[in-house]
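Researcher: Here's my situation. A collaborator sent me these components and asked whether they could plausibly form a single complex. I don't have experimental data yet, so a predicted model of the whole assembly would be a useful starting point for our discussion.
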Amino acid sequence: MKVINHIREVRQRKGITQIKLAEDLQVTRQTINAIEKNKYNPSLELSLKLAEYLDVPFTSLFYLDKSEENAE
Amino acid sequence: MKNQKLQVWIWPLIIVGMILGVIMGVYFFNDSTNNLSLAISIPFGAVLGFIIFYLLSKRNKRKSGNTPSFDERNTLMMQQFLVIAQNVIMLAVGTALVISYAKGITSINIEVLIVCWMILFILIGLGALVAKRL
């Protein structure tokens, strides 16, 4: 199952740029971009930091895509 | 904080190490004249490398703010690249040895080995650079 996230939507809603987010969480901008595009699953530490920084519950930021499982 | 201190010291240490290594190498192994002019090229290269690195890091800082140049994703990609590189190199070296043996080659020059090692080293370095950028 794939992990999907809502980071881009939440970030844009709060008016935070990728660079600002990357600077504050001390990761590269490319990593933020890869996470937002669901190409890279961040570590548990970074995921928790993201949830805390964006001030949203962890489970509403990340969730499992069950459509693949249902398709099978 | 500890990492930042290390980063400050790592370049001078590399340059001084290279200079000392070359001077010692020329002094101990150059049996004819101990010509130290050979040693000048290496520190010059190291200093030039440092200047290029410094200019590039300044440009990157201007471009992407105060973000680090390396994070958990880069570490993971580097690990994956090194595992793949290790397997490919072991396979390639094994194949080259078997082919050489089949062709009847029983000895090899150290110079050829050094050149092969240098090419391998450059390829791994370039690969690591590409893996980091992905």
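Model: Some features of this prediction you could bring to your collaborator: Chain A is about 60% helix and 10% strand. The interface with chain B takes residues 19-20, 22-23, 26-31, 34, 40, 42-43, 46 of chain A (CB under 8 Å).
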